[in-house]
């Protein structure tokens, strides 16, 4: 297992030095000219976490210029190109359903629910590529606990913003908008599951799901829903976007599993962005020690 | 002068290399986040484009009445083969790392790979028999053999259609172009059926060497 103990290196020390220095210079300059929070690339530091992987993170450029966010277009260059139109302040997240204290949170309130942590996680896309990403965020559990889930809360449903004025990709009907995702309650409360609000010690860029997104590192990337506006606690398993689009290809669980092939391609290997050769995909994306017990007794070829 | 240049085969030969040069330049620049994906897709796309261009020659000739179009057809077809071989080579090396067991499994199990492989295999006899000497030797059978271009193009579009995750807009464009090109021939054949006499008349005066049509 690649669990890092506290006091290990920060990605700032691993990032290619020139990249990091440039950013630091920029940030110093920004502070000097009194740029305040809310501006692009405002600092948002997190304390190191023992849940971080000890692998070298991908560069900021790789992470921010190559990803899927269909609300801004279906090619992986589209999000970086088009997400400038997303307005991330003010931003509210409705938390409702089976909760003793349902509540609508402003994004600033969420930032104060728990100390921000830096979580360096592997991310495995269902398409067969992967990255290592230094997120900044809080455990999802700290938000859920704040609304006091009732005994009926067995699942958590998430929804992305659905505003065609800000999201040009919504004009195309590739998916049934709004984008929806869901977790079982025990998955949602697992300490690895976070709400990310930052990347590389800065505010999360729009194309990566600003201002707040889910990160579930042992599941395929599409489970980690972006730009969340609604979270609902409920008794039934929620419908999820990719499952609705192609039920035989994308299951509700979508745990990273090299043994279960996608009907149209193998999941046994992956291309880590920046590496020349492919590497073997690990069960639960290498987080098996922490999460395999959640699925004990389940047939993972059936519940894929 | 301009017409001369446009008609010269070497101009089109060099233009057809531009997609490769562009890919090499972008690789050399080192700014691509997923270079292997880029060259896989780029080579596949251009193989398909050249297949469609090859199929466009006959309609162009029939519409324009200029038979000079024919001189480009072999080159376009060979470029389709060239980019398809590059595409397959990239797959064998950078995608599968020459893991032959995995490759065989992949070809059998993944329908989009199966049809792609079939398209490439069918292109091989066409490439081998593309020379003038072969054309002469095979006579009528040459034309029959080269009708394989139709199933090849269909397989290539199906390959693209089956590999996309959700957004079918790009394969749909290629499918539409292919439908137009094949539709043109159906129309021509129907006409040919009713107007066969007239056509035979024409043929007697202008011996053509493109039974593949
Ligand atoms: C005449 C033969 C072929 C043609 C015209 C062709 C064409 C294409 C096209 C148009 C694409 C999609 C490009 C894009 O996404 O923009 C593609 C992708 C691909 N093709 Fe082919 N192909 C052929 C043969 C093959 C063969 C023989 C293989 C392997 C055995 C293969 C494997 C692939 C793979 C792995 C991809 C990438 C899929 C992805 O990126 O998700 N192709 N091809």
How far is the first residue's CA from the last residue's CA of chain B?
Answer: 30 Å
Heteromolecules bound: protoporphyrin IX containing FE
> What's the overall geometry of chain A?
globular
Number of strands of chain B: 0
By CATH's scheme, which homologous superfamily of chain A applies?
Oxidoreductase, molybdopterin-binding domain
How many beta-strand runs of chain A?
A: 13
How many domain modules of chain B?
1
Helical/strand content category of chain B:
mainly alpha
CATH class of chain A: Alpha Beta
Outline type of chain B: globular
Task: Note the topology.
The complex is a heterodimer of chains A (304) and B (213).
Chain A: H1 11-14, H2 17-32, E1 47-48, H3 60-65, H4 78-82, E2 92-97, E3 103-106, H5 107-111, E4 117-124, E5 129-139, H6 140-146, E6 155-160, E7 180-184, H7 185-189, E8 194-199, E9 202-203, E10 213-215, E11 228-234, H8 241-245, E12 269-272, E13 279-280, H9 288-291
Parallel strand pairs in A: 1-4, 2-11, 5-12
Antiparallel strand pairs in A: 2-3, 4-5, 5-8, 6-7, 6-11, 8-9, 8-10, 12-13
Chain B: H1 2-7, H2 9-29, H3 35-64, H4 73-95, H5 100-109, H6 111-128, H7 132-138, H8 140-146, H9 149-163, H10 169-194, H11 196-205
Helix pairs in contact in B: 2-3, 3-4, 3-9, 3-10, 4-6, 5-6, 6-9, 7-8, 9-10
Bound molecules: protoporphyrin IX containing FE (HEM).
């Amino acid at each position: 297992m690649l669990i890092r103990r506290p006091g290990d290196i920060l990605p700032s020390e691993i990032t290619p030095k020139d990249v990091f220095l440039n950013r630091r210079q920029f940030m110093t300059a920004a502070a000097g000219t009194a740029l305040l929070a809310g501006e692009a690339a405002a600092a948002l530091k997190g304390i190191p976490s023992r849940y971080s992987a000890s692998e070298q993170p991908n560069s900021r450029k790789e992470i921010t210029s190559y990803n899927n966010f269909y609300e801004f277009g279906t090619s992986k260059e589209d999000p970086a190109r088009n997400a400038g139109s997303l307005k991330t302040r003010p931003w509210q997240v409705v938390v409702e359903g089976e909760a003793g204290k349902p509540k609508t949170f402003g994004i600033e309130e969420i930032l104060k629910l728990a100390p921000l942590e830096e979580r360096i996680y592997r991310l495995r896309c269902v398409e067969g590529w992967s990255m290592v990403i230094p997120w900044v965020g809080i455990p999802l559990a700290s938000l859920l606990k704040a609304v006091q889930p009732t005994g009926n809360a067995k699942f958590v449903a998430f929804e992305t913003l659905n505003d065609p004025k800000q999201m040009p990709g919504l004009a195309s009907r590739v998916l049934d908008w709004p984008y929806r995702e869901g977790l079982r309650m025990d998955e949602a409360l697992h300490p690895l599951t976070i709400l990310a609000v930052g990347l590389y010690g800065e505010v999360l860029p729009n194309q990566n799901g600003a201002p707040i997104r889910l990160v579930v590192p042992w599941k395929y990337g599409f489970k980690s829903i972006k730009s969340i506006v609604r979270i609902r606690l409920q008794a039934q398993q929620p419908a999820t976007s990719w499952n609705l689009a192609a039920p035989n290809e994308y299951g509700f669980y979508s745990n990273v599993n090299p043994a279960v092939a996608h009907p149209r391609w193998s999941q046994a290997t992956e291309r880590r962005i920046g590496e020349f050769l492919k590497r073997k995909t690990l069960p639960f994306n290498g987080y098996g020690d922490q999460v395999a017990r959640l699925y004990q007794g389940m047939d993972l070829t059936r519940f894929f | 002068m301009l017409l001369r240049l446009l008609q010269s085969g070497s101009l089109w030969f060099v233009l057809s290399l531009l997609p490769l040069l562009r890919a090499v330049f972008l690789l050399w620049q080192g700014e691509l986040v997923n270079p292997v994906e880029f060259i896989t897709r780029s080579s596949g796309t251009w193989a398909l484009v050249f297949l469609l261009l090859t199929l466009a020659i006959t309609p162009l000739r029939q519409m324009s009445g200029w038979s000079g179009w024919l001189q480009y057809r072999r080159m376009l077809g060979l470029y389709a083969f060239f980019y398809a071989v590059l595409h397959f080579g990239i797959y064998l090396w950078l995608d599968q790392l020459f893991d032959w067991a995995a490759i065989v499994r992949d070809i059998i199990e993944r329908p989009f790979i199966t049809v792609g492989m079939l398209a490439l295999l069918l292109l091989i006899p066409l490439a081998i028999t593309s020379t003038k000497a072969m054309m002469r030797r095979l006579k009528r059978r040459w034309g029959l053999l080269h009708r394989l271009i139709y199933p090849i193009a269909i397989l290539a579009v199906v390959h693209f259609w089956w590999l996309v995750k959700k957004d079918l807009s790009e394969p749909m464009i290629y499918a539409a172009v292919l439908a137009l090109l094949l539709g043109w021939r159906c129309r021509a054949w129907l006409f040919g059926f009713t107007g066969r006499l007239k056509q035979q008349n024409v043929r007697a005066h202008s011996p053509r060497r493109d039974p593949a049509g």
